Amino acid sequence: MVDTNFKMSFKVRAAKKEDCKDISRMIMELAVYEKMPDQVNISHKELERDGFSPNPFYECLIAEVSDENKTKDGYTIVGYALYFYTYSTWKGRSVFMEDLYVMPDFRGKGIGKGLMAKVAQIGVEKQCVRLQFSVLEWNKPSLDFYVAKGAEDLTAKEGWHFFRFDGQALHQLAKEAPED
Amino acid sequence: MVDTNFKMSFKVRAAKKEDCKDISRMIMELAVYEKMPDQVNISHKELERDGFSPNPFYECLIAEVSDENKTKDGYTIVGYALYFYTYSTWKGRSVFMEDLYVMPDFRGKGIGKGLMAKVAQIGVEKQCVRLQFSVLEWNKPSLDFYVAKGAEDLTAKEGWHFFRFDGQALHQLAKEAPED
Question: So where does this one cross the membrane (chains A, B) (predicted)?
Answer without folding.
Answer: none
